[in-house]
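Late entry, written up from scratch paper. The run itself happened at the end of the previous shift, but nothing got recorded in the book at the time, so transcribing now.
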Amino acid sequence: MLNKILSVSGKSGLFKLVSTGKNISIVESLNDAKRYPIHANDKAVALSDVSIYTKTDDVPLVEVLNKIKDKENGNKTSVSPKDSSNKMFAYLAEILPDYDSERVYASDVKKLISWYNILIENNIDLVVEKSDSTEQSDAENSEPKTEE
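Output as recorded:
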């Protein structure tokens, strides 16, 4: 579901992709259910394409969100995006101990916590759905299993 949930530059909150056209997409705010046009020159990123820097490799956002969900037992976070930076970074260190402290900023952690809470409030599944082309590719690459 996270491949249809977008973050739009210049707009707060998260948006669900409703429809797309040649040079415009229609999105619906998860905060107030209002619909907005997003033009081709607006920067919109699907949450499935977001990752968090670690000292070794980038970790997809969906993995981090699921770690938070496990820690919080499916409830909202125990910290608020309005808490101090130190408190938010301590929370992130519990979830993702090897995050890159030089490349992950307080604003990133604030967004992470805020986004997680919005997703939980709206009962959004924290999974990335495979596209049809990916599923077809997987089917073509898998060898049939035979018993001998």
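Residues 132-148 have pLDDT under 50 and may be disordered.
(Scratch paper discarded after transcription.)
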